[in-house]
Design brief:
Shape: elongated
CATH topology: lipopolysaccharide transport protein A fold
Distance between the termini: 67 Å
CATH class: Mainly Beta
Structural class: mainly beta
Strand order of the largest sheet: 2-3-6-7-5-4
CATH architecture: Sandwich
Largest sheet: 6 strands, antiparallel, barrel
Number of domains: 1
Order of helices and strands: EEEEEEEEEEEEEEEE
Radius of gyration: 19 Å
Number of helices: 0
Strand content: over 45%
């Protein structure tokens, strides 16, 4: 029987199916992750996590309230950098109820809470507010809780209150939009 050569880099050092786990940071539960498959690869001192079949992750505040909810078709986590990459049908919802939709999203989990580059993408993005108004752009960047947002090449429809009794929908177009 001939020997088969296998590239060790192509085999995960851990393979888990039907994952539901809590992840802590400094002894405090900060994240909940659910995924069909979770593989961990490690070569030459570098390792990364791979979620090939849909991932759902939640980020908690210190009171265990969900700050950010993320779903993606595929995800990678590069542990040395603390960098997540979601790919395919990425949908994120923050505690304010804003929904972000894009095909690729990066999240630097090591960023400070107010770092305006914690979440970012250079792909098309649609951000929808709870009232139905929205903005679309060619990428964005935001802080850890997705509450301070800067949209590149933004355009969309927002609701502007004209009086106490009525709302009018206006169109906004700009090279960039900084959302409150």
């Amino acid at each position: 029987m001939p020997l088969v050569s296998v590239d060790a880099k192509a085999i995960p050092m851990m393979h888990t199916v039907d994952v539901s786990t809590l992840v802590s940071d400094s002894g405090i539960v900060r994240y909940h992750i659910e995924a069909k498959i979770w593989d961990i690869y490690s070569t030459d001192g570098n390792s990364y996590w791979y979620f090939p079949e849909k991932i759902h992750a939640e980020q908690f505040d210190s009171l265990f309230q969900v700050e950010v909810n993320i779903v993606a078709d595929t995800a990678y986590y590069f542990d040395r950098k603390g960098l997540w990459r979601g790919v395919g049908n990425v949908v994120v919802k923050n505690a304010e109820g804003k929904t972000f939709e894009t095909d690729e999203l990066f999240w630097n989990s090591n960023a400070t809470p107010n770092d305006g580059n914690a979440f970012y993408t250079f792909q098309k993005v649609k951000i929808t507010n709870p009232d139905g108004s929205f903005i679309m752009g060619n990428g964005f960047r935001a802080n850890q809780t997705l509450t301070s947002i800067f949209v590149f090449m933004g355009k969309g429809a927002i609701n502007v209150e004209e009086s106490a009794d009525s709302l009018q929908q206006n169109t906004v177009r700009s090279d960039s939009v900084n959302l409150p």
